[in-house]
Design brief:
Number of strands: 9
Number of helices: 3
Strand order of the largest sheet: 3-4-5-6-7
Radius of gyration: 15 Å
CATH topology: Alpha-D-Glucose-1,6-Bisphosphate, Chain A, domain 4
Order of helices and strands: EEHHEEEEEEEH
Number of domains: 1
Distance between the termini: 38 Å
CATH architecture: 2-Layer Sandwich
CATH superfamily: START domain
Length: about 150
């Protein structure tokens, strides 16, 4: 597998990688110079997703049952978000066009007057090293965009 940390120079984010039980996990992080509650408020609003998460959504609409339908690079996907909370949890489940559901753990963690956003990316069964690297790069790009948007506010 190519090392996702080698792509870190292209993005203002960090990569931490580990392998357990034959699966790979990468923690993609970015420090944002805005209070955690402000970043969380912005990022937890699904309507903002197309502005900062191009790797997941170019457009999104509420389906009426609390779920969101997004046009993504993978096709139309269903996104279920964790309820808003005081803990900075931005977890979401993405149901792909194939029917496979992917759990994406995301946290906004206070760090002084700023915060750190941590996205845990897991390599799915059957995913090649190159596909995993591209996925990590897309997450890094999305977090860099989130940083730019929220620091401008």
């Amino acid at each position: 597998m190519s090392d996702p940390s080698k792509t870190a120079a292209r993005w203002p984010v960090n990569f931490g990688a580990m392998t357990t039980s034959g699966t790979s996990t990468v923690h993609v992080t970015v420090h944002i110079d805005r209070p955690a509650d402000e970043v969380y408020a912005y990022a937890s609003d699904p309507a903002h997703l197309p502005a900062w998460a191009a790797g997941l959504s170019s457009s999104i609409e509420e389906s009426g049952d609390g779920r969101w339908i997004a046009d993504s690079p993978m096709g139309r996907v269903v996104v279920d978000f964790a309820p808003r909370n005081d803990f900075g949890v931005l977890d979401h489940h993405v149901t792909l066009p194939t029917g496979e559901t992917v759990h994406n753990p995301v946290r906004v963690i206070a760090d002084g007057t700023g915060c750190e956003v941590v996205f845990t990316l897991r390599r799915r069964p059957g995913m090649s090293a190159e596909e995993f690297r591209r996925d990590a790069d897309a997450v890094a790009a999305d977090l860099a965009t989130l940083k730019q948007l929220t620091e401008r506010a």
